[in-house]
User: Fold this.
Amino acid sequence: MNLARLIRVRFAPLTLALVLASPAAFAEDLTFTFHNKSSYAVAEFYASPADVNNWEDDILGTDILPAGESVDITIADGRSQCVYDFKVVVEDGTTLERGGVDICELGSYTLTD
Assistant:
């Protein structure tokens, strides 16, 4: 089973609930599509609130997001804030960080070379 399908299956009930419910009811559940348009596979992906001084758990877990693939990400951490920092670790160990991403306004996030 590929990563995109696995995450869709895991979060399918939540996604349906987000579509059917009013935005205010699920204000803390944030969903966006992560596009890997780089030439590297993504080994780890972290999204932590900007006011937290450490990284939360790796969202991909043991999965890898291959180059050219996309996956829907849901942040359902119970927090009501929108601004997160992202950390991406690609297959060769290179770490890329981007701070201050407003995921309430974000429909998708694209990683490129």
Notes: Residues 3-20 form the longest helix (18 residues). DSSP finds one helix and six strands in the chain.
